[in-house]
C-alpha cells in the first residue's frame, strides 16, 4: 500500500538533526514548525500497519496506526509544539536537537508495530533525554544525567533481553498483547516499569528532572513515562500486578512531596503519583479503566507540563526554585500565577478542569470492580495530590510570605505556551466529549453528575481546610533547606561503598604485589645474581652452619667464598651453575606436567 | 513582610493587607459550611454504601490530609531528611 506520507517519527528526528545547520530566527521557526508538519503528516496516514519491512525472520513495522497509538501520537505532537514554543528563547544546539529528537523518539515508539522498532526508539528516548539533563551544565546535572543514563540503560537491557527471549519462544516480534506469565514477559514488564517509574525503580525521575534545564524538564516530564504507559496499555492491560504497583505509585510520592523543598522536585513526585492512576487503570483492564488511563495520560501531559512551565518561568526570572527562597510572586508574575492555579486545579481534578473528567473514570472503574482498598487508596491520593500539587506549589511560589523578590513577568513566548496549555485544560474540563471521542474504546461516560461533582468538591474543599488550619496552627511542616533520601540512596551511597570496597581490596592486592614482588623481590634477585655461584655457596653454607650449630670457621669461610667468587676462580663457572639450575627447574616442570 | 527592601512607591498587593486575607478565609469557610448543608439535603448516587453517609467525603478529605501531613512531618522526615550536601563527598 502506498501512501503520501512519511513514517511518523521521521520528520522530527531528521529535522532535529538538521537543526545545527540553522541559525537565529530560521532555527526558531523550524523548531516550531517541525511538530506542526509532523502532525499534518500524521493526519495523512490511514489506520492500519504501514512501512512494513522484512527483518531477520520477522518484520519491522514503522507505523501501526490505531486508536490507541493515535491518541498518544496527537498529544505528543501537541506537547512537542508547546514545549518548543516555551523553549523558543533557548539558543543552545544541544538542547534544540535533543528536545526535538526526544519528541520524535516518543512518537516513533508509540507507532512501532514490532518490538525491535520499539526498542530502538526506546533507547533513543534515553539518549536524547540524557542530553537534556546534561545541558544544564552544572555538576549536579552531570551526576544526575549520568545516573539517569545508567538506570535507563539497565532498564533498556532488561527490555531487550525480554524481547529476544520472547521472539525466540513465540517466533513473532509483533508488539501486541503479551500478558504476564513467561520469563520473557517479566523481563519486558520490568523493562517498561523502569521507564514508568515504578516504586523503587522511580528515583531516576525525582533525581534527574529537577536537575535538567528549565525547558528540558518540560520535554522530559512529557514523554518517557507516557511512552511507558502506552507500552503497558498495549502489552499488559488487565495485569493484576499493575493494580498494586499503581496503587503504591499513587500513594507514596505524596508524602515525599509534602516535605520536599525544591518545587520542581515536588512536581516530579506528583508526576509519579499521577502515573500511578494510569497504571491502576491499565491494571484493572476494563474498557472504562483503560479509557480512563489513556485520558488521564492525555490530560496529565497538559497540566503537568503547564505546572512545570510555570515553575520553570519562576526559575527563569528569579533563578530560584526552593520554596524557602520564594513567595509573594503573584505581584510580579500575575499571569504565570494564574496559569499555575489553572494547572493546580486541573491536577487536583476540580470540576470544570481537565483532571476531573479523566481521574474519575479510573476511580469509577475501581468502584465498579468492587476494589475497596484500592478505591480508598486512590481517594487518599486524590486528596493528597490537591494538598501538595494543588495548594503547595502555587501557595509557596506565589503567595506565602513575601520573599522580597521583584522580577519581570515571564517572556511572551512562555506565557503563550502556558496560556494555550491552561486554555486546553479548561476546555477539556468543560467539554470532555471531544477527548472521549479520541479514546481507544467507545464511551458514553458522563463525569458531571451532581453526586460526583458534590463528592469531589467536598473532598477538595476539606483538604484545603486541613491545609489552612494546619498552616494557621503552625503544624504544617516548614520548608527546610535539606535533601530527602529516597531509593536512589542504595545506588548513590551503596554504589560508592562498593566502589570503596573494591578500591580497598584491589588496591591492597596491588600495593602488596608492588612492594613484595616488584620492589623487594627484584632487588634480592639482582643481588643474588651479581654473584650467583658465590651466593649459592654462601647461603648453602649458612644453612648448614645454622642447622648443625658448628660455626667456628663460618666468617672466615664466607670471606673466602666472596674473594673466590669475585676473582672468578671457581672450578665451576657461574654460567654452568645457572645452566644446571635452569635444567633442574625445567625437569621439575616436566615432572609435574 | 516588612524586612525586605521593598520599593516604597510600590502598590501593595491585595494579600499585603491582612483584612483581605481574612475576608478570603471567611469566604472559604462559608463555602465549606455551604457544602456541608448541601450534603445534608442531597442524596448521592453511589457505588459503596459509605459514600452516601453524611459528610463522608468531607471527613475523608480532611482526615486524609491531616494524616498525610502528620506522617510526613513526624515519621518520614526524621527518617529521610539529610543535609543538602549528603551526597557530596
Write a short abstract of this structure.
Chain A is mainly α and 593 residues long. Chain A has helices spanning 10-18, 24-43, 67-86, 93-110, 115-134, 139-170, 183-196, 203-208, 214-235, 240-259, 263-284, 287-318, 334-347, 354-368, 372-398, 412-430, 432-436, 450-472, 489-530, 532-548, 554-567, 574-591, and strands spanning 48-55, 58-65, 483-484. A two-stranded antiparallel sheet of chain A has the order 1-2.
Structural description of this entry:
The complex is a heterodimer of chains A (593) and B (89). Chain A has 593 residues and is mainly alpha-helical. Among the domains of chain A are: 237-482, no CATH class; 488-528; 531-593, no CATH class. Helix content of chain A is 72%, strand content 3%. Chain A has helices at 10-18, 24-43, 67-86, 93-110, 115-134, 139-170, 183-196, 203-208, 214-235, 240-259, 263-284, 287-318, 334-347, 354-368, 372-398, 412-430, 432-436, 450-472, 489-530, 532-548, 554-567, 574-591, and strands spanning 48-55, 58-65, 483-484. In chain A, strand 1 (48-55) and strand 2 form a beta hairpin. Chain A is elongated. The mean pLDDT of chain A is 91. Chain B is an all-alpha fold and 89 residues long. Chain B has one domain (14-80). Chain B is 55% helix and 2% strand. The longest helix of chain B is centred in the last third of the chain and has 25 residues, at 56-80. Chain B is flat and about 60 Å long. Strand 3 of chain A pairs antiparallel with strand 1 of chain B, so a sheet runs across the interface.
Amino acid at each position: 500500500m502506498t501512501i503520501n506520507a512519511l513514517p511518523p517519527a521521521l520528520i522530527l528526528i531528521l529535522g532535529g538533526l538538521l537543526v545545527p545547520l540553522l541559525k537565529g530566527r530560521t532555527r526558531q521557526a523550524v523548531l516550531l514548525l517541525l511538530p506542526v508538519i509532523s502532525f499534518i503528516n500524521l493526519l495523512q496516514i490511514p489506520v492500519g500497519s504501514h512501512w512494513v519491512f522484512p527483518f531477520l525472520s520477522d518484520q519491522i513495522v514503522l507505523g501501526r496506526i490505531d486508536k490507541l497509538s493515535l491518541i498518544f501520537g496527537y498529544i505528543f505532537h501537541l506537547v512537542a509544539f508547546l514545549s518548543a514554543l516555551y523553549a523558543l528563547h533557548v539558543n543552545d544546539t544541544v538542547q534544540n536537537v535533543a528536545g526535538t529528537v526526544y519528541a520524535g523518539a516518543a512518537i516513533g515508539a508509540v507507532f512501532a508495530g514490532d518490538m525491535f522498532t520499539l526498542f530502538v526508539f526506546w533507547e533513543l528516548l534515553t539518549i536524547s533525554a540524557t542530553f537534556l539533563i546534561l545541558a544544564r551544565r552544572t555538576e549536579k546535572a552531570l551526576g544526575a544525567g549520568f545516573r539517569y543514563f545508567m538506570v535507563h540503560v539497565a532498564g533498556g537491557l532488561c527490555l531487550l533481553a525480554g524481547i529476544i527471549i520472547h521472539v525466540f519462544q513465540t517466533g513473532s516480534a509483533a508488539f501486541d498483547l503479551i500478558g504476564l506469565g513467561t520469563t520473557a514477559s517479566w523481563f519486558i514488564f520490568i523493562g517498561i516499569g523502569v521507564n514508568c517509574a515504578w516504586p523503587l525503580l522511580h528515583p531516576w525521575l525525582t533525581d534527574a528532572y529537577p536537575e535538567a534545564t528549565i525547558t528540558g524538564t518540560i520535554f522530559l516530564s512529557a514523554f518517557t513515562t507516557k511512552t511507558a504507559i502506552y507500552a503497558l496499555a498495549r502489552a499488559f492491560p488487565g495485569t493484576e500486578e499493575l493494580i498494586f504497583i499503581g496503587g503504591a505509585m499513587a500513594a507514596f510520592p505524596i508524602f515525599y512531596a509534602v516535605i520536599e523543598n525544591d518545587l520542581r522536585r515536588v512536581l516530579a513526585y506528583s508526576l509519579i503519583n499521577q502515573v500511578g492512576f494510569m497504571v491502576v487503570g491499565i491494571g484493572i483492564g476494563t474498557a472504562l479503566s483503560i479509557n480512563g488511563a489513556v485520558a488521564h495520560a492525555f490530560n496529565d501531559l497538559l497540566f503537568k507540563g503547564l505546572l512545570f512551565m510555570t515553575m520553570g518561568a519562576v526559575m527563569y526570572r528569579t533563578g530560584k526554585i526552593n520554596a524557602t527562597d520564594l513567595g509573594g510572586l503573584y505581584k510580579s508574575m500575575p499571569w504565570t500565577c494564574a496559569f499555575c492555579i489553572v494547572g493546580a486545579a486541573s491536577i487536583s481534578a476540580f470540576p470544570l478542569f481537565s483532571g476531573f473528567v479523566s481521574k474519575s473514570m479510573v476511580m469509577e472503574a475501581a468502584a465498579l470492580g468492587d476494589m475497596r482498598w484500592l478505591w480508598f487508596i486512590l481517594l487518599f491520593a486524590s486528596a493528597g495530590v490537591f494538598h501538595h500539587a494543588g495548594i503547595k506549589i502555587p501557595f509557596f511560589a506565589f503567595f506565602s510570605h513575601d520573599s522580597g523578590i521583584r522580577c519581570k513577568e515571564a517572556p511572551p513566548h512562555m506565557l503563550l505556551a502556558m496560556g494555550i496549555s491552561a486554555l486546553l485544560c479548561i476546555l477539556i474540563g468543560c467539554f470532555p466529549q471531544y477527548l472521549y471521542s479520541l479514546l481507544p474504546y467507545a464511551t458514553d461516560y458522563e463525569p458531571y453528575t451532581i453526586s460526583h461533582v458534590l463528592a469531589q468538591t467536598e473532598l477538595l474543599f476539606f483538604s484545603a481546610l486541613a491545609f489552612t488550619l494546619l498552616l494557621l496552627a503552625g503544624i504544617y511542616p516548614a520548608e527546610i533547606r535539606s535533601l530527602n533520601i529516597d531509593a536512589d540512596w542504595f545506588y548513590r551511597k551503596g554504589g560508592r561503598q562498593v566502589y570503596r570496597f573494591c578500591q580497598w581490596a584491589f588496591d591492597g592486592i596491588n600495593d602488596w604485589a608492588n612492594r613484595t614482588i616488584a620492589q623487594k623481590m627484584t632487588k634480592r634477585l639482582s643481588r643474588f645474581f651479581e654473584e650467583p655461584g658465590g651466593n649459592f655457596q654462601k647461603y648453602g653454607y649458612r644453612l648448614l652452619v645454622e642447622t648443625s650449630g658448628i660455626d667456628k670457621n663460618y666468617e672466615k669461610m664466607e670471606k673466602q667464598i666472596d674473594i673466590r667468587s669475585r676473582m672468578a676462580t671457581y672450578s665451576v663457572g657461574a654460567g654452568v651453575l645457572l645452566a644446571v639450575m635452569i635444567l633442574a627447574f625445567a625437569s621439575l616442570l616436566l615432572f609435574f606436567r | 513582610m516588612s524586612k525586605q527592601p521593598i520599593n516604597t512607591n510600590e502598590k501593595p498587593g491585595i494579600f499585603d493587607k491582612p483584612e483581605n486575607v481574612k475576608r478570603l478565609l471567611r469566604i472559604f469557610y462559608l463555602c465549606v459550611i455551604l457544602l456541608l448543608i448541601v450534603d445534608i439535603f442531597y442524596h448521592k448516587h453511589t457505588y459503596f454504601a459509605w459514600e452516601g453517609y453524611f459528610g463522608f467525603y468531607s471527613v475523608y478529605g480532611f482526615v486524609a490530609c491531616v494524616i498525610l501531613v502528620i506522617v510526613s512531618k513526624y515519621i518520614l522526615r526524621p527518617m529521610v531528611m539529610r543535609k543538602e550536601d549528603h551526597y557530596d563527598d
